[in-house]
Backbone:
């Protein structure tokens, strides 16, 4: 589904990664961990085509990123939902409008999707906040809204970058449960976090692989987690 | 070309991207204001072009097929000179009618400059003979030579002496007016392109979010182009209306004594003014599309 093969990435003369290879299989659940500044966000950005690798190959659904046009990348991103740590909303639109935005972008008739939209907003527990603006939401609410936006197009994969970074433990657990629920419906999940307790909590409920960034390489973490 | 029209139609009629670009900001106001101001100026330039054309037409048609002979002679010789000139004209081919203007007609001619109470009887005025041509007209040079020989006090004025420079001047005036409209369109394009560029830079985060969720470049372009085109259209409509109102209060053709009267648009010419907001919208469309494409190439 998403595959990195011998990927290296340099920025401003600094080598962030060298020879990174891994593959996200359909329906898999991966954690991406490592200390702050290790490059989790950069690796995640490589995983949804926001960055081009310095060398190596990134493949999405069997297509090479290097051979993709800008339009191809845009269409590919509709199959990958992304949740950022800072959520990235359009602050002048309501929560419901932000969640529905991928439908507008994809040109689907929003009215047809309204029952689904309401269900989705209810699923992330924001029914009472759908007309609020993003700036009026708490950190946890913003993350759940971002997750709802990421899944509204029913993507094949969901990539989440430190979604629990700014929220309390209970809210982290709630968000994790939502991601586990999505994985149970066959979605591929890649969750970047430095919070090992979250990974341990998840492992009780889901078969997850843990990728750890260390020394500019990716390692498959073992039972030490 | 068809694709461009379809894109413009989509921008004006389909509101899929409506609301995605934030409404507020100096750029928005700048676009509307500059479009309004430019449309206002364009209306005047357009009116000037029409007026120049109208003047050339008026002067051309009013005196087409006409000429005048001016006789400067003493009071005692005047009637004799008039008769001799009329005899010459009777034998000149290409002249349908020649007649001497009476004092009342000459007073009427002088009235706009000297008022109705001018005592023309007491003045030593030249006599005027009006000539109406027929067919291909008369040979002015031959007539001049004959008059010089037979009635040296008479001078032929076939209006070409002043008509040609005026026609030339009005033609140049029209050229300047058209150039002004082109310059106005250029300045409008530059201002809107700068405003759009500023808006795109200020909304880099919006563009980032749209790309994150899979927006194609043409969707983002349309969102910005729609916003700026509609703003420019609205501003230009307002400015054009104010300009049209100002032009409409110019002196009409019936105003007494107005030398440059009847120069504003009239009748169907008013419909040409509708083109100004449409032109502004087209200019805004092209300027914003260019700015958006440049910006989207550089933004991550």
Residues:
């Amino acid at each position: 589904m998403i595959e990195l093969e011998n990927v290296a990435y340099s920025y401003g003369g600094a080598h962030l990664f060298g020879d990174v290879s891994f593959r996200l299989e359909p329906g898999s659940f991966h954690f991406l961990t490592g200390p702050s500044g290790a490059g989790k966000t950069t690796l995640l950005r490589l995983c949804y085509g926001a960055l081009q690798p310095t060398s190596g190959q990134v493949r999405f659904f069997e297509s090479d990123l290097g051979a993709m046009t800008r339009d191809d990348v845009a269409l590919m991103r509709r199959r990958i939902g992304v949740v950022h740590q800072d959520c990235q909303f359009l602050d002048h639109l309501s929560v419901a409008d932000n969640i529905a935005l991928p439908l507008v972008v994809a040109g689907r008739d929003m009215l047809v999707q309204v029952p689904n939209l309401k269900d989705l907003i209810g699923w992330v527990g924001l029914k009472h906040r759908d007309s609020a603006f993003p700036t009026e939401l708490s950190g946890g609410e913003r993350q759940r809204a971002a997750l709802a936006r990421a899944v509204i197009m029913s993507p094949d994969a969901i990539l989440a970058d430190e979604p629990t970074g700014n929220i309390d433990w209970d809210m982290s657990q709630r968000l994790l449960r939502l991601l586990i629920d999505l994985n149970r419906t066959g979605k591929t999940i890649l969750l970047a976090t430095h919070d090992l307790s979250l990974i341990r909590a998840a492992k009780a409920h889901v078969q997850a692989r843990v990728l750890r960034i260390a020394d500019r390489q990716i390692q498959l973490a073992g039972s030490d987690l | 070309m068809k694709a461009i029209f379809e894109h413009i139609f989509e921008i004006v009629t389909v509101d899929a991207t409506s609301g995605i670009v934030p409404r507020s900001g100096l750029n928005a106001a700048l676009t509307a204001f500059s479009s309004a101001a430019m449309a206002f100026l364009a209306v005047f330039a357009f009116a000037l072009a029409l007026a120049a054309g109208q003047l050339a037409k008026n002067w051309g048609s009013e005196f087409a097929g006409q000429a005048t002979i001016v006789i400067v002679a003493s009071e005692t010789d005047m009637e004799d000179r008039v008769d001799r000139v009329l005899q010459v004209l009777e034998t000149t081919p290409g002249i349908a009618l020649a007649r001497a203007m009476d004092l009342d007609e000459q007073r009427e001619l002088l009235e706009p400059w000297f008022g109705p109470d001018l005592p023309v009887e007491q003045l030593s005025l030249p006599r005027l003979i009006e000539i109406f041509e027929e067919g291909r007209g008369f040979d002015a040079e031959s007539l001049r030579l004959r008059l010089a020989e037979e009635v040296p006090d008479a001078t032929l004025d076939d209006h070409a002496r002043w008509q040609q420079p005026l026609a030339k001047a009005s033609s140049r005036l029209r050229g300047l007016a058209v150039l002004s409209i082109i310059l106005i369109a250029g300045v409008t394009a530059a201002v809107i392109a700068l405003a759009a560029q500023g808006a795109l830079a200020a909304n880099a985060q919006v563009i980032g979010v749209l790309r994150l969720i899979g927006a194609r470049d043409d969707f983002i372009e349309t969102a910005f182009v729609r916003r700026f085109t509609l703003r420019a259209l609205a501003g230009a409509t307002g400015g054009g209306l104010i300009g049209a109102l100002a032009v409409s209060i110019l002196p009409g053709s019936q105003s007494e004594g107005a030398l440059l009267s009847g120069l504003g648009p009239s009748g169907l010419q008013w419909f040409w003014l509708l083109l100004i907001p449409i032109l502004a919208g087209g200019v805004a469309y092209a300027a914003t599309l260019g700015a958006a494409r440049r910006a989207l190439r550089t933004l991550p």
